Fold these 2 entries.
Entry 1:
Amino acid sequence: MFPTVPEPAPARVLLVNLNKYDQPYPVYPAGVAYIDGALRTAGHVTEIWDARMAGEPLEDCVARFRPDFVGLSLRNIDNVQCHNPKSFIHELVGYCRRVRAATAAPIVLGGSGFSVFPREIFELGGIDYGIHGAGERTIVRLIAALRAGGGEPALDGIAGLVFRGADGAVRAVPCDAESATFSTAPHHDPALLRAYLAQGSLPGVQTQRGCPLHCCYCTYPLIEGARSRFLGAEAVVEEMRRLAALGTKYVFFVDSVFNTSEAHVHAVCEALIRADLGVQWECFLRPRGLTLELLRLMQRAGLSHIEYGSDSLSDPVLRRYGKSFTFEDIHRSSTLAHELGMRYSHFIIFGGPGETRATVEETLVRAKALPGAYYFGTLGMRIYPDTPLWREVAPEARGERAADFLVAPRFYIAPEFTLESLHARLRDYQAENPNWIVGDPPPAFTETMEKLRRRGVHGSMWEYAELLQRMQRA
Ligand code: B12
Ligand code: SF4
């Protein structure tokens, strides 16, 4: 007979969602739901404290729940608005202090915001462990290793973990995003989900992770990996079914790009059509490789609003931004969506590398030629470490460090412009073109959205922004 090894008691893990930001609407913490699902599957006991929705102070929750571990989720570092910047880093530091004062439990920090600056945020000093990238396996392995008394060699084998070694140096174990699939399922706290739905949130559904493309500013491949991993179509339907059963009528497919693989789009849409759940959705699409048939299939499967990640309507700028399509592709994708009567928008980043006054004007003129389009414009390009833009700007050569770009958000603005000159041009243009939103949506739009949502209207509703701006002009 072998002696029986007692199973360790389940750990009590308090998950804290730090995100209170409400533009364009409060975002349901899908990442926390995934971590919750993984911890529960591993047999642990969890509770969520949500900075926006919690009914009690964080300290009271800690005292009542008595966690063995506290997991913090950091989604946003800042609002990425160059002319109206708002950093969330001081808020993070404040929360770390409050948790530290309330419990001796180890603090583990993860989330997309953390994954953009993992070392720099770790070095702010408020946490014990950081988790870069997808957190499900990593947090379960970390808890097992710590409870088994595993020291540095055990931690060194945990992909995505950031920790301080015995020598005092920060160690970042590389992420492992090589598997061709991902298959974890989130756990939704019904009360939390309903609270977000009541404030107009569109719960996120993730059908794939990773982006293999190389746009010059983009962090998504750093957060999720550069290789696409797909969730099976039936698992996507199951997730949509669970959300529908909890009262969701409209979701956001949070994939970096939904149409990276035509086969995946077909599989997911056909499964959704068969399941006939009556849930509508919105997603990011690359304006390339789309056909009328493919878009019609997505429409039949519930796609209601398309967000094209176009970035510019000028070909020299598209090339410099590292985009894998041309204005002709954008024009074709827009016309197809319009023919099908679908609502679609383009994200445009003004003032990045290669932008000149002439290319800005080219984009603004061409924008008028796309039938029925809505536009979201931003000014300047946020500079993130480890991106092609970072290497082009080469801040280290001037003695600057990545940490300098964390707390005070920094943006690239092409040499022909100042922030003010670019802002003034776009503000004037927006005044004449109500289908544009530059920067944050106008307050009248946000207020109207809130009213409509309280009356049970769901979805993105950008079309109301145009209506409101027209009314204001009149
Ligand atoms: C979809 C998306 C949106 C959609 C959201 C739609 C919706 N209804 O959910 C829209 C377009 C509305 C949006 C808006 C904004 N977004 Co956005 N968005 C994304 C995107 C592409 C995916 C986010 C997502 O849901 N992923 C799926 C979930 C499951 O993954 P996850 O949250 O990352 O969680 C995993 C890990 O991070 C980790 N994890 C998460 N929490 C925890 C906790 C612990 C303890 C652990 C261990 C691990 C862990 O494990 C999870 C599971 O694997 C990301 C980029 C990206 N690829 O990540 C940007 C991103 C999150 N957005 C970003 C920003 C800035 C914004 C805006 C501020 C932009 C703006 N100016 O309006 C707003 C803020 C909205 C808000 N109120 O918070 C930034 C945040 C970083 C930063 N620069 O600050 C990102 C990273 C993009 C970027 N620029 O780099 N966004
Ligand atoms: S901008 Fe979109 S397509 Fe380009 S690398 Fe980022 S996620 Fe991929």
Entry 2:
Amino acid sequence: MSLVSLRNVGKTYQSRLGAAYTAVRGFEMEIEPGEFICLLGTSGCGKTTVLNMLAGFEMPTEGSISIGGAQVQGPGADRGVVFQGDDSLYEWLTALENIEFGLKMRGVAKAERRDRAHRFLELVGLKGQERKHPSELSGGMKQRIQIARVLANEPAMLLMDEPFGALDAQTRSVMQQELLRIWQETRKSVLFITHDIDEAVTLASRIGVMHAGPASKLKGVIPVSISGERNRTSDDFIAIYRQVYGMIREEVALAMQRQG
Ligand SMILES: Nc1ncnc2c1ncn2[C@@H]1O[C@H](COP(=O)(O)OP(=O)(O)O)[C@@H](O)[C@H]1O
Ligand SMILES: [Mg+2]
């Protein structure tokens, strides 16, 4: 059975001025356990809308979303969300305490949550940084803490909305490799949103390409079967990049037209 199933999902936003906007319509996707899915699309096409509905932050206005066979009714510990910015960390808590915080809220005993927080801090490569506060850490390190904090709750899957978008190119590349390593070690399912083809080909086991909005849905899904390390200059990598580029090129043009 699929871990996640999105069936005929639609979202129409009602604005306060009365005009409705249908961001997503007829969106269909299945995610298997352990898959790394990148959802790729032009700016404003509805990627965040899809992620927010799966996270339970927004309810679909059409169709249904289930995880582990149960309908998504709201946010839950089975889905860990990693945000783009680093402002979701608590400034007044140390790195370790930030990772522990969710466990504390859920009533996990002190010794156990300390232990788990240390384990995940180490997993994301931050051993030795336990006592630092977010303001003393780089953007990449803060993103690692977010990932550790989410993983410490042992979710069935990670939802990541352009998490490395604010990082410089080198740090982003390091974080992509780190995320792949963490994914291989934990075997969590990941839904990762990006508008960057290169990032999608680097990370995904499947890439879902979205149409330009409004009423966006998947245009197609491209499996990425590159064995071993993904090298941007390899023939395999370039072939998939081309395929994805071919799909998204028209959508970029459409999106630009529609924005006037
Ligand atoms: N709360 C909202 N109310 C009205 N329109 C919204 C709201 N959230 C998003 N939208 C619109 O829905 C479309 C898709 O937005 P979003 O999912 O954020 O796109 P993406 O993440 O692909 O850039 C955009 O046109 C956006 O303006
Ligand atoms: Mg977005």
